[in-house]
Design brief:
It is built from 10 helices and 12 strands. By secondary structure, it is of the alpha+beta class. It has a 10-stranded antiparallel sheet. It has a two-stranded antiparallel ribbon with strand order 1-8. Its EC number is 4.1.1.111.
């Protein structure tokens, strides 16, 4: 690969995690911005996908806006962990599944179109796996964004923090919207007119697809639309979940402060489940080396005056499954 190819790959990975053109020929627009031919962009994106550096190009839906989800965990004997992880992975509702350093050592995210389907899936997982599931649904969001600034300029471009946001019932989807969500879950096809391809799958006009996606972006139902990178393959191999036990009266204010810190990709409140789980404030910190992440956590806890609160740091060890959520 020559320097031009490397430069194009870098720009695609870094610059277009957001600000993706929602138009009939988006890859031609990207090519115009990069000063290359449309075919160069399409080949580069396909190459990045084959290398595992990107999961897809497309929509990241905001949590609990069109469906329901939960973080869940199990405490599994180490000798059975891989086998039970494989069982959990078979459920289509599970989109992320990691081993983490803790008594609760298997952590997964389950997503479904309705609360009934989600609870049915969790019940089935518990029954098949043979171990109780700790359910930790999202209660308040302070910041959720797995974009990565690869140019060392701090926040990935366009990143936005949010004030604490509690959740109401998800937006019900009509039949057209349900079909569109299904089509979007797989990402944009890497063709010259990708939205036209989606429209043919949904059974509507390209204009309707673009209008609905733009509206969902404006309403915050789609959190961002663009290149979805895979952080591990880009060198962010140190992945830590930092959890704190914060008094309920203070958790929102502290969560908002923590969410404003660079390097904090996710920050949210989840319920305690006593006596098994005492922590209610969660954040994710990614780095290229464990020592780097440990130092960042220590600095954050000291500067934000969190050292008096009980905490735990759960580094990920094994990635058993990682893909986009399935809502429909």
């Amino acid at each position: 690969m020559d320097k031009l190819d490397d430069a194009i790959d870098f720009r695609l990975l870094n610059d277009f995690q957001r600000d993706f053109p929602l138009c009939s020929a988006p890859f031609a627009e990207l090519a115009s911005r990069l000063g290359v031919a449309e075919g160069v962009v399409l080949r580069a994106l396909e190459g990045l996908r084959r290398q595992g550096k990107i999961a897809r190009v497309g929509a990241i839906f905001a949590p609990k806006r069109i469906g329901v989800s939960t973080l869940a965990a199990m405490a599994v004997p180490a000798a059975q962990l891989a086998a039970i992880a494989e069982v959990v992975n078979r459920f289509p509702e599970v989109n992320h599944n990691y081993e983490r350093e803790h008594h609760y050592n298997l952590w997964f995210v389950a997503t479904a179109g309705s609360e009934g389907r989600l609870q049915a899936a969790l019940g089935a997982i518990e029954q098949v796996a043979g171990w109780p599931v700790l359910k930790l649904p999202l209660l308040e969001e302070y910041h959720i964004d797995l974009g990565f600034a690869l140019d060392g300029q701090g926040e990935s471009q366009g990143s936005m923090r949010v004030r604490s946001q509690a959740f109401t019932a998800p937006t019900p989807l009509d039949e057209f919207e349900r079909r569109l969500v299904m089509a979007l879950q797989e990402g944009l096809p890497l063709f010259i007119r990708p939205f036209s391809v989606l429209a043919s799958r949904v059974g509507c006009e390209e204009r309707e697809v673009l209008e609905r996606i733009r509206r969902w972006c404006a309403e915050g139902i789609i959190k961002r639309f663009g290149v979805v990178v895979r952080h591990h393959e880009l060198g962010y191999t140190a992945n830590a979940m930092l959890v704190h036990d914060i008094p309920d009266a203070s958790v929102s204010a502290i969560g908002e402060r923590l969410a404003c810190e660079s390097g904090v990709n996710l920050c949210y409140r989840r319920p305690r489940v006593l006596p098994s789980w005492r922590y209610n404030l969660f954040c994710m910190i990614h780095g290229q080396a464990r020592a780097e992440v440990e130092a960042r956590i220590a600095e954050l806890r000291a500067r934000l005056q969190l050292t008096d609160y009980a905490h735990a740091v759960l580094f990920s060890l094994t990635r058993f499954k990682q893909r986009g959520a399935r809502y429909a």
